[in-house]
Amino acid sequence: ADYNSHNLTQKFNWDLLFDGQSLFAWCSSGETGSGKTTQIPQYLYEAGIGRQGVIAVTQPRRVAAISLATRVSDEKRTELGKLVGYTVRFDDLTSDETKIKFLTDGMLLREAIGDPLLRKYSVVILDEAHERTIHTDVLFGVVKAAQKKRKELGKLPLKVCLAAMAARGGDGAWPLRSE
């Protein structure tokens, strides 16, 4: 499938570029396979949001983190571990060049123990957050605390607002302030 021309990601890209300066939290919904997880980090990078730091994309499972990093590095036509990499327990394929990093939510939580402000990240995408793992629940608090001290840090909890959007008649990506 050609995810680059998908309506959801095209709409997200336009909204992001239009309101990119005030990105605090973003809620995105869409069908499974619509490209949210693979395309949104690429759009953020291409929009320059990942230039000041790494774009983190958390996954609850290591297999997902590895396969998504592989997919995005293929789409970007770059060697895995360079522009796009992953970190899972006992396996880190990143470098100083890595700007899009897929990692398990447990690994980001482990990083936050040493750096609670998550200084190396410009955006944190909490993907599959609706699955409500203990790590993801704690990460919401960690990232929110980091945002209070680092106003430039973006947090994107993908899929977490599906029920709220359906109740409000939402139709795609829309901003959600977390203040």
UniProtKB/TrEMBL annotation:
Keywords on record: ATP-binding, Helicase, Hydrolase, Nucleotide-binding
GO cellular component: nucleolus
Reactions the enzyme catalyzes: ATP + H2O = ADP + phosphate + H(+)
MF term (GO), any: RNA helicase activity
All residue ranges annotated as the Helicase ATP-binding domain in the record: 29-164
PANTHER family found in the cross-reference section: ATP-DEPENDENT RNA HELICASE (PTHR18934), ATP-DEPENDENT RNA HELICASE DHX33 (PTHR18934:SF118)
Protein name (Swiss-Prot/TrEMBL): RNA helicase
Organism: Anas zonorhyncha (Eastern spot-billed duck)
